[in-house]
Amino acid sequence: MDAKHPLATREELANLDFYTDLADRYLAVDGLEARWVSFTRKEILPDQETAGRMHYLVSLARAVEETLDSAFRAGHIPGTAFFGRGNEGASVASAMCLEDHEWLVPMHRNCGAHLAKGHPPRSIMSHFFGRADGPSGGRDGNFHMGYRPKRITQLISHIGTMVPIATGVAWAAKARGKGEATINYIGDGGTSSGDFHEAVNFAAVRKLPLVIIIDNNQYAYKTLLSDQYACDALVLKAPGYGLPGFLIDGTNAPLVHHVCSQALERARAGGGPTLIESITLRAAGHSVYDKFADYVDMEHFEKWTNERDPIKRLDEALIEFGVMTAEEVAASHARARKDAEDARDEALKSPMPDPAYLTEGVFAE
Amino acid sequence: MITYREALSEALWEEMERDEDVFLLGEDIGLGGGAFYITKGFMEKFGRDRVVDVPLSEAGFTGAAIGAALCGMRPVVEFQFADFVTESYKMIVDYAAGNHYRQMGPVPIVLRLPAAALVSAGPFHSQNPEIWFFGTPGLKIVAPATAFDAKGMLKGAIRDPNPVIFMEYKKFYNYPVDELPEVLRPEIPEDDYTVPFGQARTLREGDDISLITFGTTVLEALEAAEVLENDGVSVEVIDLRTLVPLDKAAIIESVKKTGKILFLHEARKRGGVGGELAAIVAEEVFEYLDAPIRRLGAPEAHVPLSPPLERAYLPSTEKVVSELRDLAAF
Q1: What is the 3-state secondary structure (H, E, C) of B32-74?
Q2: Is B191 part of any domain?
Q3: Do B176 and B230 share a domain, yes or no?
Q4: Any chain A CB within 8 A of the CB of B105?
């Protein structure tokens, strides 16, 4: 089914019709050669059990973030909050490819990845609410969180930082020789940072077991892609580092799962890193304070959120191919919503941190 | 007796033999044995996966060290010169320093920083980095001034579960052992040992003035104390050895005895560690002071290269003597 096509241009990528056309295809770049590889939807669907779990987690990611958003409006979240609306499918479908003992190095729009890796919604809620029993004990908030029991690292605000950290995590996996791999995410804006370059280069040189996913959600805060980079697609950086790269539709969760599984298998087998550019739309503001309608093309926004919503697309695909019934899909959504709200209710009962412990834990013993 | 440089090499070698999780990252450290040959022969013994020649990317490889440390490894990062650590600043102060406080686990990394002036090394190969880190919680900052401390403190740093800023002094690397004052060449034990952090060392006892220092200026401090002895003034010289943790008690006890105190360091006086130490003395034992607290550090300039400028910039024995005589006059 392989047929050679020219690379997509950035204008084409930003064009919704182009994407509709490409619904279930991804562009693979191998060296400087560009190919289209086609898949039918059915071919990329995971097995029934995996698909069911994927559906619940994608739905849970949205439910958790919507619950957090209303909790913010109700005054329960100190500081600010960032959400990954529109990225739930890519986040869940990639992270669920990791084994329990493998590390995840997420960014701030990867609620779905946290959930897929096993971070309980209850813990996420406590963290956002600044409670003593959250993973940081109230010492940080919003998506600056890790979860050590499930091997999830914490991120800091400095965008780009986590890519070098991820190379070290992958280094440890390689050094211990147990065939483990890791996933790290970075945004389109983050690819402009020096850290991104230093880390991808190092990972490539040392063939580290690392899958780097560029969550290209079309906006870095309020900056357009055309002000962020001048290449046609970020995935084109891959051959420059000597890496294979994939450009995928990040709103197609089964496709993300399919590509990430392969990239992880390659990494575990010693084949080295893969760079994946996953195109989504940030379907909300940068943070809860961001008036995004001021700078977002709302026509484009409406079209994407209507036609390329990862949850809606997953619902349709699973029903169309008989993986889940409409009733099962509805029940999965209802369960996710209830789990998110129960987690919120429980977390709101958690104690606030005690200032008596303010200076404890600066050093490890 | 071995040199300071050999002491560092021995510490790294022995720790790598002791613990498979210890590995080294740095520019030119493998094939080339490092800019100062501290890891010469290491790659042959431990392989290229434990003695890692990294691409020129300080932020990148510092981040990699942190990531590996999060997973329980014990990376030791060599910066070619301490000055280049500014490339990695956020990785250290924002990520590594606070990770444990944010309850995300320990970050056992050692950052080896070849620090301070060497003859005409210029503005980008001569700096003292402690002040860039001193205000950040969660970082240990150590400054060995002898081969004994270099070995024992590097071993201690590698076994410490926290990020350690390990300043090592280029001036001491190949300093001829027999030219060092007796007190700066303690016997190095055959057996494994570590030097506990937070314990200052009295290099010379005295009753009239306390001279508190660390790092390269231990030499000038001892020479100046000798000169003052001929004046009939007894100077107590203390090497702090580590800045975080700080042996506050040693400073307090000494100034209680002498009533006069001079803080000396090679780094600039303004914003230098001496300012914080002076404030501690003023806050806690003001009533014991018989003279104003004095500080001696480099003046308000960048480290210059040309010899007459560099000589004028660095704290010299003459400058220390002058400060001590001023204090003695009170």
Answers
A1: CCCCCCCCCCHHHHHCCCCEEECCCCHHHHHHHHHHHHHCCCE
A2: no
A3: no
A4: yes
| A161/B94 CB distance under 8 A | yes
- Nearest Cα to B246, choosing from B281, B204, B283, B197? B197
Complex ipTM value: 0.95
Chains A, B: CB contacts within 8 A come to 129
- On the question of pLDDT at B287 being above 70, the answer is yes
A173/B162 CB distance under 8 A: no
pLDDT in tens, B303-330: 999 999 999 999 999 999 999 999 999 9
Print the domain residue range for B249. Answer: 201-328
Structure tokens at A21: 């056309």
Subunit contact A168:B66, Cβ cutoff 8 A: yes
What pTM was computed for the model?
Answer: 0.94
Q: Which residue shows structure tokens 């300093």?
A: B175
The nearest alpha carbon in chain B to A151 belongs to: B71
Among B136, B157, B184, identify where a domain stops: B184
Which backbone phi and psi does B134 adopt, to 5 degrees?
A: -60, -30
Scored b (16 or more CB within 10 A) or e, A324-362 reads beeeebeebbeebbebbbebbeebeebeebeeeeeeeee
A177 touches chain B (CB under 8 A): no
Cα–Cα distances (Å) from B19 to B149, B155, B165, in that order, read 21, 11, 21
> B46 with B90, same domain?
yes
Residues B232 and B320 grouped into a single domain:
yes
Q: Are residues B17 and B166 in the same domain?
A: yes
DSSP H or E segment with residue A71: helix A48-73
Confidence band, pLDDT 50/70/90 cuts, at residue A11: low
pLDDT of residue A20: 41
Q: CA B254, CA B262: separation in Å to the nearest integer?
A: 11
Please report the residues numbered 185 through 204 in chain A whose beta carbons come closer than 8 angstroms to any beta carbon of chain B.
194-195, 198-199, 201-202
Please state the φ and ψ torsions of residue A216, each to the nearest 5 degrees.
-85, 95
Mean pLDDT of B1-17: 97
Q: Considering only alpha carbons, which residue of chain B is nearest residue A172?
A: B68
What are the tens digits of pLDDT across the range A20-74?
Answer: 444 334 444 443 233 333 344 677 788 999 999 999 999 999 999 999 999 999 9
* Check whether domain A49-160+205-228+262-307+315-348 has CATH 3.40.50.300, yes or no: no
**Domain count of the fold of chain B:** 2
* B-interface mutation test, from A127, A202, A212, most B Cβ less than 10 A away: A202
Same domain, yes or no: B29 and B161? yes
Question: Looking at chain B from residue 199 to 238, which residues have their Cβ under 8 Å from any Cβ of chain A?
Answer: none
Residues of B that are catalytic = 125
Residue A19 in this model has a pLDDT that exceeds 80 = no
Cβ-defined contact of B70 to A166 (cutoff 8 Å): no
B33 compared with A238, residue with greater pLDDT? B33
pLDDT at A258: 87
User: Using a CB-CB distance cutoff of 8 angstroms, which residues of chain B are in contact with residue A105?
Assistant: 67
A53-112 residues touching B, CB cutoff 8 A: 103, 105
* Residue type at position A259: V
Pairwise CA distance, residues B261 & B250, whole Å = 12
The conformational region for residue A159 under phi > 0 = left, psi -120 to 50 = alpha, else beta, is beta
Is the domain of B151 the same as that of B103? yes
Chain B residues near residue A195 by CB distance under 8 angstroms: 59-60, 63
